[in-house]
Specification:
The complex is a heterodimer of chains A (475) and B (488). Chain A is of the alpha+beta class and 475 residues long. Chain A has 15 helices and 16 strands. The chains are: A alpha+beta (475), B alpha/beta (488). At the A-B interface, loops of A face α10 and α11 of B.
């Protein structure tokens, strides 16, 4: 029995709240974090006589997402009703796409240890969110701001066998959402939600084991941890001769384990039928093509461009791509600046530090950033000087060129000038030379410091260091 | 005689000539509403109606707006902002909507004066006028209150029939305007589905629900059509079309009406049948071609069960919003399930519950294919057959109901063709979405009876033209209550 190797089969359902001015079927504003029940129209409360109207932006978002996930896109929109009673469901039914999802038969490739793993995606459909429930000990509050917010649900086939792949897949979906700008993809705020279906069976077995659902995963790390825990839990149940029950569990972050929510009895019959208030809407080829061609560039495409065209390292490219707004800054800056390595390092270093420290939007124009990096690239200023100037331009909106002129900032990169200075300093500091010969590394640093002091920081540090070393060896 | 006994155009003329004023009409209508003996009203809109009417007095009556200052009644399943709307169901007791239905808005903009909201069969389900939470609505033609007015637009029908107002808005999902129109001696018109916005009409079965109305004559029906047909972005099924009709000089020429032999074969009432046949002869004399065809008995017999399956299924879903959580009476309960269950147990009558049970049953996964989806298929087949027959014709005609309004406790053989087919075939126009009109052709025992003509979708104007010919032939324009009017 102990020799049996078990394999987990995992399917993921991801709900993405997509960005749009209004809700999926209602013209109430689609906002997050507003005072409860302030973005609500009669239809969001399911008031009698109200009727749904389809939000075009939400459809465009779904098309963009479907396209990014390599899906077949349905040229006719059909909506269905999913009927059930629940306190968070205003109309007593949810409008969704059951029979004909807008996207089907797609896939994503994720990279695990250098190898590409394919995750098959069964469907992507549009639907509306429910209202938000705030549970207290003896009452529940309902916030209808969320009721009707556009969702895209993305469902994989049960084709994942590894917790890490599941995590990478969710990360990839989130990245795609963010790069397409169809969602802010914040798991912690619930704008991207992931449910996991998982079962285990002896490897090679044709039958799936009993499926357990895990809900409320609020980070990609927890997706991986919850699955890893669940695989072990189910394994030990089976090895102890017990059965896995069909149940819904949630992940308890403090205990790092999955906890029972409810045992699933008979599956609920949602009595799906086609939504009679929305007739099928045919989408023209042009509309679909225009929507797709207006999609923003994905991170993968940028990665290729950065590494192929700009020859930056894969590591640098990946670091930059973790933050879409910085990648966009890079894209804009390369139009006026071709010191790609200097630029990407500066963004990944100074700019990222600054943005993280501010934890806010900043107003740095690509034009000024380009000027700044060009000054460094042309060796007119040092990195340290660039850093100082950067701190000014994010606040003052001043041109780096003007700042350099105004403050007489420059860099001495003239070899003759530097050699004269170096030789004078060496003459004045014989002990340092002796120390250097004796292998004391600090001696060189001391001398560089002296050069900087003499030049008021204007000496090109790299050049000065190189020349100093050469001169020291001559002595 | 009062101006209220006349049709819209005549009242408008009187207003233009200064013979009456909006406030006088309104006061009189309100008076009549209060004196109503037919239990037709949910609510009297007294203060607001009077305020509006008095304001209208101050302005000159515009010659191009016939609805200016005309009192009317609205069925209680239209959302009216700030005015209680219950759809005659306890589950919506004291419910005050937050927005106006598009139809109500259009009438408001036209300065028509809503004097009352009409009682109806609960949630527009039922065809008897007996299931309102305020009790049965009676037929003004029958002072003994033995005969029904029909439903579900029972109060709307009664209010025009009793000369309280010249027109009333109802809604028609199966025959909810066209059947009571037959029993109440009125013109009942259901335009093509999608022409008039349903926004704000409490949904019963959206694929069948149509804004429809009662008038005293065909001309008024046309005036209302002109007013209410308007593309509405709040209703995704609202169409953006312009109706057209090739109006030749001779109204009757080039018109072909079909008679379905297997429909009319079941008509047993000799009096109504004779008048109907007489009418057909007179129409022929005027140049209308009457063509007898066979529709197909099984398809005709399938209309009623198909209607039940589709409408009950849609109804159970549409009314799932009525759960006591967000609006309407909120009963006690320890859990949300208990609150919902108590609200729905107390809020709905047994007839409604029965329909929901059937509606849910036909939607269950294991039944959908054999019941709900099959019903949708049959609906399509019926419509295909109708379109096939109407391809070479302009409409079909029959008695709107087999006879005059039945008595409340009259025994009917619910399995007979006369009941299954002739008492329920009008839903065919809801299946096709086409326009359909009922208008009176005679009286029996002082009770009216009527014909119905149904045409192809978007042939609304042509249908009204045909109806006008019939109206002229019968001479029964403005039949209704004035003959036996007790108001002084």
């Amino acid at each position: 029995m102990n020799n049996v190797i078990y394999e987990a089969t995992i399917g993921l359902e991801i709900h993405v709240e997509t960005k749009s001015n209004s809700k999926m079927f209602s013209s109430a504003p689609n906002v997050y974090g507003k005072k409860p029940n302030t973005s609500v129209l009669p239809i969001d409360l399911g008031m009698p006589g109200t009727l749904p109207t389809v939000n075009k932006k939400a459809v465009e978002n779904a098309i963009k997402l479907s396209n990014a996930l390599h899906m077949e896109i349905d040229h006719t929109l059909y909506f269905d009703r999913k009927n059930y009673f629940y306190s968070d469901l205003p109309k007593g039914y949810q409008i969704t796409q059951n029979e004909r999802p807008i996207g089907k038969n797609g896939y994503l490739l994720v990279k695990l240890d250098g190898k590409e793993v394919r995750v098959d995606i069964e469907r992507l459909h549009m639907e509306e969110d429910t209202c938000k429930q705030l549970h207290y000990t003896d009452f529940t509050l309902l916030d209808y701001n969320r009721a009707g917010v556009p969702l895209c649900e993305i469902v994989t086939l049960p084709c994942i066998h590894d917790a890490k792949v599941a995590r990478l897949y969710v990360e990839k979906i989130r990245e795609i959402c963010v790069y397409l700008d169809v969602s802010d993809g914040k798991m912690e705020e619930g704008s991207l939600r992931c449910d996991v279906n998982i079962s285990i069976a002896p490897k090679g077995s044709e039958q799936f084991g009993t499926k357990v659902e895990i809900k409320n995963l609020n980070s990609t790390a927890n997706v991986e941890k919850a699955i890893a825990y669940e695989i072990e839990r189910q394994k030990s149940l089976i090895e102890n001769g017990e059965k896995v029950r069909q149940e819904t569990r949630r992940f308890d972050e403090s205990k790092m384990e999955t906890v029972l929510m409810r045992v699933k009895t008979d599956a609920v019959d949602y009595k799906y039928f086609s939504e009679p208030n929305i007739l099928p809407i045919s989408l023209s080829d042009k509309f679909i093509e225009d929507t797709i061609s207006s999609s923003y560039e994905l991170a993968d495409v940028k990665f290729e461009r950065y590494t192929q065209e700009f020859k930056v390292s894969e590591y640098d490219a990946l670091t930059l791509l973790k933050n879409r707004s910085l990648a966009l800054l890079f894209d804009e800056t390369v139009e006026t600046c071709s010191y790609y390595d200097l630029l990407i390092h500066f963004i990944n270093g100074d700019v990222l530090t600054y943005v993280s420290g501010m934890n806010a939007i900043f107003n740095l124009s690509a034009k000024h950033l380009g000027e700044l990096i060009n000054l460094v690239g042309e060796k007119k200023i040092s990195n340290a000087q660039a850093r100082d100037i950067f701190k000014q331009i994010v606040k003052s909106d001043e041109s780096p060129i003007d700042i350099v002129k105004k403050n007489d900032i420059s860099q001495i990169s003239d070899e003759a000038t530097l050699l004269t200075l170096i030789n004078r300093l060496l003459d004045e500091n014989p002990t340092a030379i002796q120390d250097f010969k004796n292998g004391k590394g600090r001696a060189a640093s001391f001398l560089v410091g002296q050069i900087m002091k003499e030049t008021k920081g204007k000496a090109n540090p790299a050049l000065a260091s190189k020349l100093l070393n050469e001169e020291l060896k001559k002595r | 005689m009062s101006y209220l006994d006349l049709d819209i155009l005549s009242i408008h003329k009187a207003l233009l000539e200064g013979k009456t004023k909006p406030s006088l009409l309104c006061k009189e209508a309100l008076e009549r509403v209060k004196k109503d003996t037919n239990n037709a009203f949910e609510l009297v809109n007294e203060e607001e109606a009077l305020r509006l009417a008095l304001k209208l007095d101050e302005e000159e009556v515009p010659f191009d707006n016939v609805f200016y200052g005309i009192p009317y009644v609205l069925k209680d399943n239209y959302s009216t902002k700030g005015i209680k709307t219950t759809a005659s169901s306890n589950i919506l007791n004291d419910f005050v909507p937050l927005y106006d239905a598009s139809v109500y808005k259009l009438l408001k903009e036209a300065k028509a004066v809503m004097v009352a909201k009409a009682s109806m069969d609960e949630l527009a389900m039922g065809g008897t006028g007996t299931t309102s939470h305020i009790g049965t609505t009676y037929n003004p033609y029958d002072p003994k209150h033995e005969r029904m007015i029909g439903g579900s637009s029972s109060g709307s029908a009664a209010s025009v029939s009793a000369s309280i107002v010249p027109f009333a808005i109802g809604s028609d999902t199966g025959d909810s305007v066209r059947k009571p129109a037959s029993y109440a001696g009125l013109v009942g018109f259901k335009p093509t589905w999608g022409l008039i916005s349903r926004y704000g009409l409490f949904s019963y079965a959206p694929s069948l629900d149509t804004v429809a109305y009662f008038t005293r004559g065909v001309d008024d029906a046309r005036l209302l059509l002109n007013l209410l047909v308007k593309h509405d972005l709040n209703d995704a099924t609202s169409l953006d079309v312009t109706l057209e009709d090739d109006e030749s000089k001779d109204e009757a020429k080039n018109i072909t009406l079909l008679v379905f032999k297997d429909l009319d074969v079941n008509l047993k009432d000799e009096v109504t049948k004779n008048v109907y046949h007489n009418l057909l002869c007179k129409l022929k004399e005027q140049g209308i071609t009457i063509k007898e065809v066979t529709f197909g008995h099984d398809l005709l017999a399938a209309i009623y069960p198909t209607y039940n399956v589709i409408s009950f299924a849609e109804a159970t879903s549409n009314n799932a919003n009525l759960d006591g959580v967000k609006f309407g009476p909120r009963p006690e309960g320890k859990t949300y399930q208990e609150v919902m269950m108590n609200a729905r147990t107390e809020g709905f009558s047994n007839l409604i519950k029965r329909r929901f049970v059937i509606g849910s049953y036909v939607l269950y996964k294991e039944n959908q294919k054999t019941l709900f989806l099959r019903a949708k298929k049959v609906r399509r087949k019926i419509v295909e057959r109708l379109n096939e027959l109407l391809a070479d014709a302009d409409g079909f005609i029959s008695l709107a109901a087999p006879s005059i309004a039945p008595k409340f406790f009259e025994a009917t053989d619910k399995l007979s063709d006369a009941y299954v087919i002739n008492d329920n075939y009008l839903a065919i126009a809801n299946f096709s979405g086409g326009p359909s009109i009922t208008l009176p052709i005679g009286l029996k025992d002082k009770m009216p009876f009527a014909v119905n003509v149904t045409a192809k979708t978007f042939d609304d104007l042509k249908l009204l033209r045909i109806a006008k010919v019939i109206e002229k032939t019968t001479g029964m324009k403005g039949l209704s209550y004035p003959e036996v009017n007790k108001y002084e």
